[in-house]
Design goal:
This protein has about 200 residues and is of the alpha+beta class. The chain is about 25% helix and about 25% strand. It is globular and about 35 Å long. The chain binds 6-(adenosine tetraphosphate-methyl)-7,8-dihydropterin and magnesium ion.
Length: about 200
C-alpha cells in the first residue's frame, strides 16, 4: 500500500491500485476519484504483453480538474499498448512559471506499455487534444497536460521528445506524487532515486 505521508500539499488522497486483475480505488479524504470510471476500466493484465513501466505526469488547471484526470486515465487505458496500473493521489499545487493562472492539480500515473516512446507521446498528445487542450501560452493554463517522466531506464534525446522529462528533477509537483508510487526508481541520467531528488528540492517548486 502506498502511503502519502503527512505532507500538507497532498490534498487528495485517492489511490488506484491493481491487485491481480482487480483495480481498487481508495479515497482517504477529500472528494475526487470516484473509483468507478478509472478503476473499473482498468484492463486485465492478460490482455496484452507490456514491457516497460512508465510514469506519466498529469497536470490540469482548467475546468473540473479531477474529472479531467479521470477522463485522461480512462483514455490512456483505452489505448492498445497502454495499461494504467496505479495513480498517485491528486495534489493541489501553485503554478510554477508561465502567466498568472489558476492553481493546478498534479498527479502521476504508473503505466505498462509496449509502445515505443514516440508512439506513446503521440497517444498522449491525442488524448490531450481530445480533452480540449490548446496551446495559447508557454506554460499557460491547460485542461490536461500529459508528460512522459520515465520509461524504465530509457534515455531519449530527440528534438520533440526528451526522456527522462528534462525538468522533472526540479519539480516538487512532479516528484511528490511520483514518490508515492516509485520512490526507489533511479533517474537514468542523474543516477539518483526519486526520493533523493525530492529531498534535494529546497524551494516551493
Ligand atoms: N516534449 C519533450 N519531451 C517530452 C516528454 N518527456 N513528455 C515536447 C511530453 N512532452 C515532451 O509540451 C511541449 C513539447 O514538449 C511537446 O510538443 C513535446 O514534443 P506541451 O505539453 O505542448 O507544453 P508544456 O507542457 O507547456 O511544455 P513543457 O515545456 O513540457 O512544460 P512543462 O515543463 O510540463 O511545464 N505548475 C504546476 N504547479 N503544475 C504543472 O503541472 N506545468 C507547467 C508546464 C508549468 N507550471 C506548472 C505545471
Ligand atoms: Mg506537456
Amino acid at each position: 500500500m502506498v502511503t502519502a505521508g503527512s505532507d500538507p500539499q497532498i490534498a487528495q488522497m485517492t489511490q488506484i491500485e491493481r491487485r491481480g486483475n482487480e483495480c481498487v480505488a481508495e479515497e482517504r479524504s477529500g472528494q475526487t476519484c470516484s473509483p468507478s470510471s478509472s478503476a473499473q476500466s482498468a484492463k486485465s493484465a492478460d490482455k496484452k504483453d507490456p514491457h516497460l513501466l512508465a510514469y506519466i505526469a498529469l497536470g490540469s488547471n482548467i475546468g473540473d480538474r479531477a474529472k479531467n484526470f479521470h477522463a485522461a486515465i480512462d483514455l490512456m487505458n483505452g489505448v492498445e499498448g497502454i495499461s494504467v496500473l496505479r495513480v498517485s493521489s491528486f495534489h493541489d499545487t501553485k503554478p510554477v512559471g508561465g502567466p498568472p493562472q489558476p492553481d493546478y492539480l498534479n498527479a502521476v500515473a504508473e503505466v505498462e506499455t509496449d509502445l515505443p516512446p514516440t508512439d506513446l507521446l503521440a497517444e498522449l498528445q491525442r488524448i490531450e487534444r481530445r480533452l480540449g487542450r490548446t496551446r495559447a501560452a508557454h506554460w499557460g493554463p491547460r485542461t490536461i497536460d500529459l508528460d512522459i517522466l520515465l520509461m524504465g531506464d530509457t534515455i531519449v534525446d530527440e528534438p520533440h521528445l526528451t526522456i527522462p522529462h528534462p525538468r522533472m528533477h526540479e519539480r516538487r509537483f512532479v516528484l511528490e506524487p511520483l514518490c508515492e508510487l516509485a520512490p526507489d526508481a533511479v533517474h537514468p541520467r542523474l543516477k539518483k532515486t526519486m526520493r533523493e531528488l525530492l529531498s534535494g528540492i529546497t524551494g516551493a517548486e
